[in-house]
Design a protein that fits this description.
Largest sheet: none
Number of domains: 1
Shape: elongated
Structural class: mainly alpha
Strand content: under 5%
Order of helices and strands: H
Number of helices: 1
């Protein structure tokens, strides 16, 4: 059980990091120096599929 929870946490952290890198804006506490402003076109749902 602990192993599966660990694997799930790794998968989730990879998705969160990928989403943060793809987003070309800052929003709330997710601030990026290279994209300091909010961009309304990113105010959508982003879906990822693990393969």
């Amino acid at each position: 059980k602990k192993y599966l929870e660990f694997i799930n946490m790794l998968d989730l952290s990879e998705l969160i990091a990928s989403a943060a890198l793809i987003r070309e804006e800052s929003r709330g506490c997710h601030y990026r120096k290279d994209f300091p402003n909010e961009d309304e076109k990113w105010k959508v749902t982003i879906n990822f599929v693990l393969q």
